[in-house]
Write a structure and sequence with these properties.
By secondary structure, this protein is of the alpha/beta class. It folds into three domains: about 80 residues, Winged helix-like DNA-binding domain superfamily/Winged helix DNA-binding domain (Arc Repressor Mutant, subunit A, Orthogonal Bundle), CATH 1.10.10; about 100 residues, 3-Layer(aba) Sandwich (D-Maltodextrin-Binding Protein, domain 2), CATH 3.40.190.10; about 100 residues, D-Maltodextrin-Binding Protein, domain 2 (3-Layer(aba) Sandwich), CATH 3.40.190.290. It is built from ten helices and twelve strands. The strands form two sheets. Strands 3, 4, 5, 6, 7, 8, 9, 10, 11 and 12 form a ten-stranded mixed beta sheet that branches. Keywords: DNA-binding, Transcription, Transcription regulation. This is LysR family transcriptional regulator. Pfam families: HTH_1 (PF00126), LysR_substrate (PF03466). It comes from Gordoniibacillus kamchatkensis.
Length: about 300
Amino acid sequence: MDMRHLQYFLEAARWKSFTKAAQALYITQPTISKMIKNLEEELGVALFDRIGKRIELTDAGSVLLTQAQHMVKSFEEMTSHLDELTKVKRGRIRIGLPPMVGASFFPKVIGQFREQYPGIMLQLFEDGSKKVEADVGAGELDIGVVLLPTNEEQFASFPFVKQRLMLVVHPSHRLAGSREASLLDLKDDAFLLFHENFALHDRIIAECARLGFEPNVVYKSSQWDFISEMAAANLGVAFLPEAICRELDEDRVRIVPLTNPAIPWHLAMIWRKDGYLSFAAREWIAFARQALSGND
């Protein structure tokens, strides 16, 4: 039995005539008669009492009628919902964003996407790059934004930002007026860093170790604006991406290019290579790729 059998049966029951049902379905009368006969043989019961050219439901046919109506309605609702999914009219996308990324790059993109696809729900989860990558890998997020490099064997991706970290200091800091600063120049300063679940934390610690010193980390936070406020209060030195530094009040802090080493801040959107991507998620990736082009 397939759904077409049930649809033909319902039309025959509605019209009480194989001929009229066939005309309504745009098929031949022998076709619907054969379909009904096959259905009766499969179920082992007579569904219609043939009375000349007229047909009437048997008691078994009446039982099937109620069930068939529910089944066909459910099938039609299912196909309608699937059609909406494939045409990207509805869906849900779970996206992981580090705080700095969400504030700087995504409000406009999300607004444009919502305007074009109002039926798609975007669920945003804010966390550090390391946690976002782990959650995408575990299937808890569909898509994430992370700091490069990432695991190319596990994730597909597209990069959309190539910037570097800048030094953020109080105006009275000895390097406030410098044209550039070396990380080694800061070995005796108090460091204001992101928490350990942020990839930037590990990267800065690793660069300090490579230069032969362990930084004096006095505060850790998950919020870039809090870190910048602590630098403005002269509680230590901070390291923030160029995009964030453009939003800082330069009357309260000084921004100095960090060199030797220049620490890159390259971002990419990632998703699992071996995971299922919904139609909505695929559309988001294509939309975001185009919207974020030219952010380098």
